[in-house]
């Protein structure tokens, strides 16, 4: 549904996108993650024709995003990261205004979403909190009924309960065949929500794949609470165990089987152990460290 090949963009001699190639399949929720300044927003803006790439190919639903940007926009519900527009309009009015140019918008659904997300539709946008503005943008994207949703940091500034609601809403939309491409800093939410993830770093794709494949080979992680204060010298270091922590709260990362770790720590004064292994956060950290190592 979304296809990019070797996309490049340079701002004043600074390359921001350096040959980005990726595919987003129809009916999936695809996460686009990476540190600040990686180029995620710039890429999303290229998709909706707000930014023109210097070279490469980019299509949405088979349409060239550069030459057919109007046709692309009618197929995309876009929630940008910036929330500074139309401060004097009421939330419900802005929603109506924003979805009108789509072929089959659903204003009623949009207003219901505002209610569900606890956004007062009669309040002026300028008086809404940052999180509420993000919810209005999200409601717009969903109520546009466009086959593709492009969401720039949709979870930003949302509390955990609102995140869960939004995650459920997006799952439902994807299961009805809509395609969701979202950028996020929240790797926990990304892991819960997305079937595929692309990691972007300094304008390049570092890793891309189905979440369950990416999670294979990620180190295990245990959170351990001890009955007494521990120092690093009392903790076993064989089997490549990596410890971090202080006092009674420690975390250990490992690449060997869990049983081997348990045998290593069996004699320690443990109060509780929580298995917190196999997370995208670990993969991201490792990729990022490797990249910083290469650069320095
Ligand atoms: P991300 O969304 O991953 O945080 P962005 O795409 O917003 O990254 O930004 C990538 C880089 O491009 C940053 O260094 C940013 O300062 C730069 N950049 C973004 N937009 C512009 C612009 N309009 N003019 C100049 N530089 C820009």
Provide a brief overview of the structure.
This protein is of the alpha/beta class and 296 residues long.
State the main characteristics.
alpha/beta; Alpha-Beta Plaits; single chain; 10 helices; four-stranded antiparallel beta sheet; binds adenosine-5'-diphosphate; 33% helix; Rossmann fold; 296 residues; six-stranded mixed beta sheet; globular
Question: What does the largest sheet look like?
Answer: 6 strands, mixed
Average pLDDT confidence is 91
- Count the helices. How many? 10
Shape from CA axes? globular
Query: Which ligands are bound?
Result: adenosine-5'-diphosphate
The residue fraction in helices comes out at 25-40%
Along the chain, the helix and strand elements come as EEEHEEHEHHHEHEHEEHEEEHEH
CATH superfamily of the largest domain: P-loop containing nucleotide triphosphate hydrolases
- Global structural class: alpha/beta
CA-to-CA gap between the ends?
37 Å
What percent of residues are in strands?
Answer: 25-35%
Report the CATH architecture of the largest domain: 3-Layer(aba) Sandwich
CATH topology of the largest domain: Rossmann fold
Strand order, biggest sheet?
Answer: 6-7-8-3-9-10
Helix and strand arrangement:
Elements: E1 2-11, E2 14-24, E3 29-33, H1 40-47, E4 55-60, E5 63-64, H2 69-74, E6 76-79, H3 91-99, H4 107-116, H5 130-143, E7 148-152, H6 160-175, E8 179-184, H7 187-193, E9 196-201, E10 204-210, H8 211-215, E11 220-226, E12 242-246, E13 249-254, H9 258-265, E14 270-275, H10 280-295
Parallel strand pairs: 3-8, 3-9, 6-7, 7-8
Antiparallel strand pairs: 1-2, 1-4, 4-5, 9-10, 11-13, 11-14, 12-13
Helix pairs in contact: 3-4, 3-5, 4-5
Adenosine-5'-diphosphate binds at residues 11, 16, 34, 36-42.
